[in-house]
Design a protein that fits this description.
Elements lengths: L4 E4 L8 E6 L2 E6 L8 E2 L5 H4 L2 E4 L11 E6 L5 E6 L4 E5 H5 L6 E3 L6 E6 L6 E5 L3 E6 L4 E7 L7 E5 L5 E6 L4 E6 L5 E5 L6 E6 L5 E6 L4 E5 L4 E8 L11 E6 L5 E6 L10 E6 L9 E2 L7 E4 L5 E5 L5 E5 L4 E5 L7 E6 L5 E6 L4 E6 L2
Parallel strand pairs: 1-21
Antiparallel strand pairs: 2-3, 3-4, 5-32, 6-7, 7-8, 8-9, 10-11, 11-12, 12-13, 14-15, 15-16, 16-17, 18-19, 19-20, 20-21, 22-23, 23-24, 24-25, 26-27, 27-28, 28-29, 30-31, 31-32
Amino acid sequence: MRRHIKRWKKAHLGLVAVVMAIGTVLSVLISHHAIEPAIAQGEQPCWRSGNLLLFTPKPDVGHSRPVRSVAFSPDGKFLVSGSADKTIKIWELVKVWNQTVRPLVLAPNPEEITSVAFSADNQILVSGSLDGSVRLWDWKARRVISTETIYPSRTGVSVAFSPNGQTLAAAGFNRNTIVFWDMATRTKREWLVSEKFGVGAMAFNPDGETLAVSTMDGFVKLWNWQTGEVKQMVRDDRYRDDKFPTPVNSLSFSPDGQLLAFVPHRLTSSSEHNQICFWNRQGERVGNCLQGHTDDIPSMAFSPDGKYLISGSWDDSVIVWNVISRTLVYRSPQNSKRILSVAFSPDGQSFARGSGDYTWKILKCKQ
């Protein structure tokens, strides 16, 4: 198996990008230090002006333990929340905004829920839990289709669908394998990610070919997940510490697949803690890192147009960033307990977060 290992020196932070307006679309020519993706031209988002609607479920219908994972359905009509209270709740968003919501509850689950995701056709919900298992749900019928334990107990499992929805990937935190299921045949295959180091995070590239996987030695491997070929192994020299490796604990690809946002868990320089940085497809660190959080950042996601990035932190805040200007657009009040999960809606007009204060919240642009 052919492997390429790349390391980088700290990039020059004086950035230049040539932006050309062609009709209503911005075309961006990028220098090798720039991070601007091609985006749609439009107004500043409503959260810059604070013109937002906020919903938080009441305690009698919400969760009783931390909300570890939130996700929107592909059609934008539902939000799912998975909690350490061992329940999965599905919320119809029309009823959320009409204040008439009663969630559909998927239970029982033998252990805490650590991740949730909808299939591309909205028919299946998949959940990972702390007993090392993965469950497929016919969520509309509240029925478990299948359950498979893939790791020892007390292993939190992260789940994700491939861009075409035909493959499901599951990884156990700090375990050194990833399991893939073909959703049509329900056959599975298992990959050894590393002989020695466990998985920290994973993310599918929208190109349909690449899976990024971070390991506890500080590397991020870019796999062709269909063939098993490792196309690249990447690590930034700023985070290199062979005695105390710096794992990447959060990954997210831009919608066009050109940028991979990453969050190092620990840096040697205190001034560089809690940043979000970017690699391009060539494995080069590009542009300024985003600085604004004061604690770990376990979750982040790009907006559907690639222009914005949302991040949730243990500092109790959610931040929306402008990826082009690398500026902070919106910061939520710090009145929660550790943000654990964030997600953008498919139309980019809403975002949700789950936190350690047992709640999830959704913010939406006022019409």
